[in-house]
Design a protein that fits this description.
The complex is a heterodimer of chains A (97) and B (215). With 97 residues, chain A is mainly α. Chain A has helices at 2-7, 13-24, 30-42, 69-86, and strands at 46-50, 63-67. Chain A has four helices and two strands; from the N terminus they run αααββα. Chain A starts with a helix and ends in an 11-residue tail after the last helix. Chain B is elongated and about 60 Å long. The chains are: A mainly alpha (97), B mainly alpha (215).
């Protein structure tokens, strides 16, 4: 979902996969990315629409994703939860190891 | 400017497996963007497996029907098995009478005509399941493959027991040869039957992939 938000309006399989690879430093299987996107979509956290077929893709269309309002609320909630959990850990702030 | 074409066979496998054309398009685009043929091929089993798992989850009633077919089809194919068995006996007698000892050793070692019968049965069952479950053919044949794997696992577990009782290393026992020939025939016959039964990719498009918009 963060990748979809980062990529913006052009969020389809290729830029989303590349963004995840850049962020994690690991190769990802495009099929795994789609499996995750399907799960998020079935939970109403993201939505998708089919674009126009292009010759560069052998006449196959792109599927564009966007984060829904519910998805955005969930992302913010997870962010707040993580920030709360990260605070007060002395080992992460130069304290005694 | 020429456009780089991804490996044709890999794309054909993806299309015959009814992998989402959007995903195939992404793979083609990445290949044309500089990814290697090895990368493209590596994506194929993942895409096919992922599509199969999704289809089985969505269409579990069809998956149940495919499993039922996998159970009842082999006994129903006895009309194929009997003539092949008779041919096997005729071939064995001919090898004996003609004195082809080396060939006869291999004939006995490979437990012919069992692998040939297996091949025909695996192929026909996979083809039948594939043909009757379009456009979810590959996923439903995957159900059959999992069932075959369970049967192979049983053979694998029985093998060492037989070898222990006969005081022979497992790899030289008939059980090991039987397992090896079974697995090889499965690996060739099942995908062949599945892909031939699935039909051309344009036939029977998936209803859920036709212009899906959820926004």
């Amino acid at each position: 979902m963060l990748s979809i938000l980062r990529v913006g309006d052009d969020a389809y399989g290729v830029p989303i996969s590349q963004d995840i690879e850049r962020a994690t430093g690991r190769h990802v299987a495009v099929a795994s990315v789609y499996a995750a996107l399907e799960r998020l979509e079935s939970r109403g956290l993201i939505a998708s629409k089919i674009g126009e077929p292009t010759a560069a893709r052998g006449g196959r269309a792109k599927r564009y994703f966007r984060v829904t309002a519910k998805g955005l609320r969930d992302v913010r909630l997870v962010q707040r939860t993580l920030v709360r959990m990260w605070t007060g850990v002395p080992e992460l702030h130069g304290g005694p190891a | 400017m020429t456009t780089l074409q991804p490996p044709l066979l890999a794309t054909a496998i993806l299309e015959r497996s009814r992998v989402d054309p959007v995903l195939v398009g992404d793979l083609v685009e990445q290949y044309q963007g500089g990814r290697s043929a090895f990368w493209y091929w590596a994506q194929v089993p993942r895409a096919v497996a992922s599509a199969a798992v999704t289809d089985i989850r969505r269409h579990y009633v069809l998956a149940g029907r495919a499993f039922l077919l996998a159970l009842i089809a082999p006994p129903a194919l006895s009309f194929v098995i009997e003539p092949l068995s008779r041919l096997g006996v005729i071939a064995n007698n001919w090898l004996l009478e003609a004195g082809h000892d080396a060939l006869r050793w291999w004939w006995w070692r490979l437990q012919m005509p069992v692998p040939a019968i297996d091949f025909v049965v695996f192929f026909l069952v996979a083809w039948l399941i594939s043909r009757l479950h379009r456009p979810y053919s590959i996923a439903m044949v995957a159900v059959y493959s999992v069932w075959l794997l369970c049967l192979d696992a049983k053979l694998l577990m029985n093998g060492p027991i037989v070898s222990y009782l006969n005081h022979l290393p497992f790899l030289v026992t008939q059980s090991a040869w039987f397992l090896a020939t079974t697995v090889v025939t499965e690996v060739v016959a099942v995908p062949l039957g599945a892909f031939l039964g699935a039909g051309p990719p344009d036939a029977n498009p998936r209803p859920e992939q036709a212009g899906r918009v959820t926004s």
